[in-house]
Amino acid sequence: MNLGRENEFLEFKKTTGEAREAMRSISAMLNKHGRGEIYFGVSNNGDVVGQQISDSSLRDISRLIKESIDPSISPIVREEILDGLHVIHVIFAGTKKPYSSNGVYYIRVSDEDNKLKQNELLRLVKEVSYNDDWENEWTSHSIEDIDDAVLRKFFDNARNCGRLSAETYNKESLLQTLGLSADGRVNNAGFALFGKDADISLKLANFATNEKLTFLDLKEMRGNIYTLVDIAIEYILNHLDWKVDIGKRQRLETPEIPERAIREIVVNAFAHARYSDSSTEHEVDVHPGKVTIYNPGPFPDDLTPEDYVSSDKASLKRNPLILDILFRSKDVEKEGSGFKRMNYLLEKNGLKWTFDKDSFGFYFTFYRPSKTIANNGTNGTNGTNNGTNENLSTGEHQVYDLLSSNPKLTIEKLSDLTGKSARTMQRTLNALVNKGNIVRIGKTRGYWETIK
User: 36 — phi, psi (to 5°)?
Assistant: First the structure.
């Protein structure tokens, strides 16, 4: 039997004679990912060779881990039989980084254990203060509580992205490999990502103006992270304008804001949220002039997205497990480069973005191109008058923007949204037509075309 190759989560030792070297691997994996596995009785190339295991072998390994690793951990140390050969399997996890092995700190890089330099150790300490231990805590849920269809979708997507090497789908094996389960139990990250009854909250809203006043659409959803990410992205794309280019052989449709940029920010919001707070709620707001995505997790105090755009700064990870899994399957960038990529895509398309913090999270806003904002006739990028529709009253502005967002609105629906009578709506529509701001296309099943 062959167990594959060593990696950042997995180490092989031929015998327990290499136990002290294994302690370095435990320190390194804990400092990098907060978890890992070691097999004694397996050669470096993954071949199971087995070894003699006495009554004291498991106790000796457990005692050595307790003496060597600081802060202390409580690993699973057990004997297993693989193809008739006896091995020792050690499974460990910890949330109190940094960890040392006999007073020395290590970090896992590929399949190697490297000593941490002083500046790297200081950065790790800073990361720990930002990181949330919540995702590694074990739940009362079993792997049966994981949505098989959603997990299989992740498997297919990760394979297509080239970021998962497993050849065949196996629910239990995949969850263990990803660090989401052990001994049939699922941790918080696993259940939040793929749980059948996960309770992550997402609010989706489409507004008539650039103020959060008049709803055209409002949805509140609960579910697992993996599903909600796709729902959030799809909601934004469905409410954007799309450009159609007719080529020689195909029709190409592209959204006004690059889909890749939207995907980067949505995935970032779900990966770095603070889920240990029971009031956590993600939010997506679509306005005529902007799209705002709220991340319910404070950004590091002394950093902003601009810091990642202007330099090659490594990212701080609140939820490394969740980030790793979304990175594997959502075709986004990792290690802070996502902001750089997003900024490049927006600059290439002449678009702007802003970033604002509050005490509980932060707002990321994309500004839509050539959109008129109803409030005071200002445009979303700099708040100056753009000269459009200057001759409209406040009520006419409101109706104009409602029709810009939904050209098929009826007089009755406009009346409901504005709180004005149907007769007032008819007068307002007539005024907009006379001023050349809207044109009726079609009759009974027609729509309103707004003219800028």
Answer: 175, 180
Model pLDDT for residues 232-267, shown as the tens digit of each residue:
999 999 999 888 766 555 666 789 999 999 999 999
322 within 8 A of 192, measured Cβ to Cβ: yes
Respond yes or no on whether the N-terminal peptide bond of residue 98 is cis (omega within 30° of 0): yes
- CB under 8 Å to 75, separation ≥6 — which residues? 26, 62, 65, 90, 91, 92
Pairing of strands 215-223, 242-246: unpaired
DSSP state of 298: P
Q: How far apart are CA 209 and CA 395, in angstroms?
A: 12
Residue 192 has φ and ψ, to the nearest 5°, of -65, -40
Share of the chain above pLDDT 90, in %: 52
Which amino acid does the sequence have at 282? H
Pairing of strands 10-13, 35-40: parallel
Displacement of CA 136 from its chain's centroid (Å): 17
User: CB of 425 within 8 A of CB of 418?
Assistant: yes
Of 199, 222, 186, 197, the closest CA to residue 147 belongs to 197
Cβ(147)–Cβ(195) under 8 Å? Answer: yes
What is the model's pTM? 0.59
Which residues are CB-contacts of 309 (< 8 A; sequence separation ≥ 6)? 339, 340, 343
Residue pair 365/292 in contact by the 8 Å Cβ criterion: yes
E strand segments, 24-154:
35-40, 69-70, 76-82, 85-93, 100-101, 104-109, 112-115, 138-142
Contact 124, 116 (CB under 8 A): yes
Q: Which pair of structure tokens corresponds to residue 1?
A: 């039997």
Which 3-state string (H, E, C) describes 97-128? CCCEECCEEEEEECCEEEECCHHHHHHHHHHH
Highest mean pLDDT among 110-124, 165-179, 385-399: 165-179
**Could you tell me which residues are beta bridge partners of residue 207?**
215
Cα–Cα distance for residue pair 292/47, rounded to 1 Å: 51
Full set of structural domains in the chain with CATH: 1-130 (3.30.950.30), 138-386 (3.30.565.60), 389-450 (1.10.10.10)
